Amino acid sequence: MSWTGLLLAVVLFCLSLTPSLLPRPALYMGLIGGLAATTGYALGVFIAWALRAMEVPAPGERGRRTAWIGLAIGGVLMCLISLFLGWQWQEEVRVLVGEEPAGLSMYVVPVIAVVVFAVLLLIGRGIRGIARLLTRGLGRFIPAPLARVLVVVALLLVGWWIASGILPRVFLDTVDGIYEAVNDSTAPGITQPLSPLRSGSPESLVPWDTLGQTGRTFVAQGPNPEQITALTGRPALEPIRVYVGMDSTETIPEGASLAVAELMRTRAFEREVLVVAGVTGTGWLEPQSVDSIEYIWGGDTAIVGLQYSFLPSWISFIIDRQRPAEAGQALFDAVYREWSRLPRESRPQLIVYGLSLGSYAMQSAFATVGGMENQTDGALFVGTPNFTEPWGTLERQRDPGSPQWKPVYRAGMQVRFAPDSIDFDALPGPWLPPRIAYLQHANDPVVWWSYDLIAQEPDWLKEPRGPGVSPSMRWIPVITFLQVTVDQFFGVNVPNGNGHNYPNTIVDAWVEVTQPPDWSPDDTARIQALIDTMPTT
Fold first, then answer.
1. 301: β partners
2. Phi-psi category of 43—alpha, beta or left, where left has phi over 0 and alpha has psi -120 to 50?
3. Residue 94: pLDDT over 70
4. Which is nearest to 331 in space by CA: 265, 251, 394?
């Protein structure tokens, strides 16, 4: 074993225990620790090799023995202290997100880390053994230095072929089989709607069995006029819900055209509000969000969505970001063409909406925020992924003095960012229509995850911290990237108002964007109280 490699492995393992955006279970702390230790060991081995190549004198036998004893004692002490601090930091983050302190089994962390480290080390040494064997064989026919270069190049090419070709194909085939079966199934308690105002009904142009699981759930659920009236005390219509599944058409443009045909069949363009909704990777639309707008407007609404995948969002955005962008643009363009033909005085409010990858999908329909302002009557984007445009441009061009986690763009005249809907009114100037709203928590890993975290400290850690972000969190190259990557898997496992959970302020956000007439704070509170009782999915 390399002394330098083990030293850096211990250091990076200890650093991996520092806090990040959300609390992490011990299993994932161990996984991150193992990956960090492996990275540190590889870096240490490289440094040691470089020193030998530069012929830096190595310490004598006594010096080496002393160094190993020091590493054994000091390394153990460092790990014990870091594990204790890591436990305290995790409890601190739990309190910040509104969870009760929970005693973590911290002894599990080093065990898992050692296992991960050992497996990766064995793989690395196996590759090194193969390289040496090939080099010796090839060295019989050509000079040894040339043999080493050729073997290294060959192994790199094979590794790239496996990593970029074989592994993704095997992975995709596996997850495709799993999630295609889920997509073909129907959730318990979901039955085909009979109302002609729903896709998948007997009168619909979209067959029920082509909607996918999430599409079937969307069109079969939601409040009816009686439920809306009982809550609001006002007469209500039956909301229109239009959805086109992946199996409904051969291509995304065909799906967008079919969605518009469904909107026309249901007379959706005669409603007060028409929401063009971006769906998540599986095709899901959050019930709290879509139900809210229907309650607010007394059912005088139409919501349309287009499925582009049945894979979870984290897989979709890693494997293929093009399809959600294509779906968002195709759907909006098709709806906008029909909507723009209508007399201005009889058009519904045209609102674009998206949560998570759905936010990315719908924003992809616009090259700039100016296009959004010119072609819509408002927008609500929730938990927007960091790679989204024009979100990224707005964040980069924010007014001086405003923090990255809550940027102010052009004094908030039309675009406003907030961790919750109350903050939309924090700016002194008027908020002019069309109103464009971004809900984003300071501790939402989906919003702040980026490859830039590997080597660049983000502004949201350099500037004053937003709500829920630990004051103990520090940017550490590679480590912070690994931490925030894992945090995304727990984004919805924390209480509402933190991470990737936004239902607790969604009603007020819709009210701010769509401006329903004769509305009062009591109306908002009444609907929000109902939304708060809905189970998170």
1. 273
2. alpha
3. yes
4. 251
The residue type of 499 is G
Contacts (Cβ under 8 Å, ≥6 apart) of 480: 20, 453, 461, 474
User: What is the reported pTM?
Assistant: 0.91
**CA-CA distance, 24 to 69, in Å (whole number)?**
33
- Burial track 322-345 (b if 16+ CB lie within 10 A, e otherwise): ebbbbbbbbbbebbbeebeeeeee
Torsion of Cα atoms, 513 then 517 then 522 then 525, to 10°: -30
Do 240 and 262 contact (CB within 8 A), yes or no?
A: no
Q: What is the pLDDT of residues 307-337, one digit of tens each?
A: 998 888 877 777 778 899 999 999 999 999 9
- Structure-token pair, residue 12: 């990076």
Q: Which helix (H) or strand (E) holds 328?
A: helix 322-340
**Contact, 335 vs 260, CB < 8 A?**
yes
3-state secondary structure of 23: coil
**What single DSSP character describes residue 153?**
H
Q: Using CA atoms, how far apart are residues 413 and 418, in angstroms rounded to an integer? A: 14
The answer to whether 303 touches 335, Cβ cutoff 8 Å, is no
Q: Distances in Å between the alpha carbon of 366 and those of 59, 342, 432?
A: 62, 21, 19
For 15, 29, 341, 364, the CA distances from 83, given in Å and listed in that order, are 10, 10, 64, 43
Handedness of CA 64, 66, 67, 68 (dihedral sign): positive
